[in-house]
Structures are given as C-alpha cells and as structure tokens.
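Please, structure for the following, as tokens.
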Amino acid sequence: MPIDQTQNRATPARRAALAVAAWALSLVVVIGWLVAFESGPAPVAASTEVPAEPPRWRLDVYAHPRCPCTRASIEEISRLAARLGDRIELRFWFFRPESESDAWAHSGSWKSAAAIPRALVATDPGGRLARSAGAVASGHVVLSAPGGRAVFNGGVTLTRGHVGPSPGSDAIYSWTITGSGLDQAPTLGCPLFGEAP
C-alpha cells in the first residue's frame, strides 16, 4: 500500500515536470523563430509589371482558292508566321463568287492557310474586301502596322509558284522587326476575280 501512494504522489509531480518542459521547449522554438524573423532579409515582393507584348502587326492575304500559284504564297506566309510568332496576326480572305456558298472556296489552299497557327481564314464574297484593298491578283497581301496604317502592299513570291526569299517577304519581316522596309512588291498570281483562274 505505501508503495502505491508514493507512485500516485510522483505521477502529478511528473506531469507537472513534463508540462513545464513542454512549455520551455515551446518558448525556445518561438524565441528562435522570432530571432530568425528579425535578423532575416525582408521577403521579396512579386513583380506586378506585366511583360510587354510585342506590337501586333496584321497581314491581310487576298487569294483565289483555285489558283495553283497561291500555294507558294501561303507556304511563304507560313514561314514568315513561324519566324514572327505573336508579332503578326494573319487574315486570309478567299474570293468566292456571290452566287456560290462558302464551300466553293474550301480548296487545298484554304486547308493550307487554315493549318497556320492562329490564322483566321474566311471567304470574301464577290471579292469586296480585296477590291477595297486594291488587290487584283491572288496572293496579294497588305501589311498594317499596330496603329492600323498600311505599310506594305504586294506579293511575297519572287516568281509565280516560287517558294523562298523574295523582296515582299523580306519587306514584311523587316517592317515587323525594325519598323521600316519596302512599301511594295509585285504580286505574281492568277487574276483574283472570277470562277476559275
């Protein structure tokens, strides 16, 4: 019996000692955290600046869906788009006669243009948009600066059906990167208006 009473008396003392030890340990941890906080560098604020986007140029392309030479223009424009990325917005306007549905314009050239990332491809009924831009041959392009001013008119091929460097494609690249370049080049394609070139 006396042994049990001694154990019962030691248990509250042991509990009190454990509570004091836990309190002391908590105090040491809190003091350590405060010292580290006071002596550490201030947190770096995240930047609130939005990275500047490159200026957006727009290239409007006027094409006849059944002109075989237009494939070369589209391929050259695709190469330009890959080099210029988000700097340029592409809009392809495919002629279709007023009497035909949009399906009339869905040719191989249409599919090639639609395969260019971020390109808008649509029909131009009766060629109204092309006429207002002064386009008369398939593959005619108009490059507009970010403010909307047209800075280049013409074609992007050196000869009919030729894929590769040309004064027109070089001018578009130069305008978009440096803000200057040639303002025109010949458009070498089929006549833009009519049912079949």
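The radius of gyration is 36 Å. The longest strand covers residues 88-96.
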